[in-house]
Amino acid sequence: MNFGLLVYNKADVGRNSWFISELIKRSADLSIELSLYTGSFDASFLKLLSKADIVLNRSRDIRVNQLCKEQGVICVNNEKTVRLGNNKWENFLFAVENGIPRIDTVLCEEGASFPDFPFVMKEIFGHGGHEVYWVENIEKYERLIKKPGKTYIAQRAVSEHTKDLRIYMVGDRILTSILRSSADDFRSNYSRGGEISLFEPDKDVLEIAQKVQRLLDSDFIGIDFIPDEGKWYLNEIEDAVGSRMVYQLTDIDVAGLYLERARERLDHSSK
Predict the structure, then answer these.
(1) What is the mean pLDDT of the chain?
(2) Angle CA(72)–CA(77)–CA(83) in degrees, nearest 5?
């Protein structure tokens, strides 16, 4: 039996309680004793980490990966995936570097050449549709940019800004693709009341998703695309991706597949 830690931000435990309980309950079937950890990354965490064979990092905190690396412990997702999946500017640079179609984006800093109004502003570490703003004029931009401790990107508004597409992947396997849309909000997140439906993307979109996964060697991610003038562009990579939409629309066993991927990581490391 291997020992594993399931690491969550304490604030996220409530809305993820079912998924957490499924992972803990079913991990034993794959010879993993999984324990939930929601504390700080102090001596207590290091003590637990010294006993662990694997960590499932659902905290979105890259410090978990760095500590795992120091201790020689497998971490799912890996450090590159966690970094890109939780930093929207790094996500954009990754797309540029690898020739992946993306919407024009700039870092909001002095001297930057901004898109025409209206454009979308996003706090680079935000998630779940939080701290994403529709900016119609210079006054709104200046109010946002003055927020202390915040770093934003500005993204050109797309032609169909009330919808996006999420492709779920475990390892190199595409689980499903889900279209999210909103009638009254440019943020189409399901958690914010957006409507959802299964969707079959074009081959080109699926190939981009597979390319992203290959480059990251990710374990469990969502890859989000946004439409503009009839084409789909990479928007964001979701590291600690939620699976509520998948369970609502399909009978896919996300928790089981996620655990199987963790088991594969363990088995591969022991060879």
Answers:
(1) 94
(2) 100
Count of residues making up the chain = 271
- What sign has the CA pseudo-torsion 8, 14, 19, 21? positive
Residue type, 133: Y
- Beta-carbon-side half-sphere exposure of residue 102 (alpha carbons within 13 Å): 25
Q: Got the DSSP string for 62-122?
A: HHHHHHHHHHT-EEES-HHHHHHHT-HHHHHHHHHHTT--B--EEE-STT--PPPSSEEEE
Q: Is 19 left (phi over 0), alpha (psi -120 to 50) or beta?
A: alpha
Neighbours of 191 (CB within 10 A): 14
Give the pLDDT confidence of 24-73 residue by residue, as tens digits: 999 999 999 999 999 999 999 999 999 999 999 999 999 999 999 999 99
Task: Tell me, yes or no, if the pTM score tops 0.90.
Answer: yes
Q: Which two tokens stand for residue 255?
A: 């928790």
Nearest 5 degrees, angle CA 212-CA 218-CA 220? Answer: 110
Tally of CB atoms within 10 A around 136: 11
156 close to 138: Cβ distance less than 8 angstroms: no
Cβ atoms of 265 and 193 closer than 8 Å: no
**pLDDT tens per residue, range 72-104:** 999 999 999 999 999 999 999 999 999 999 999
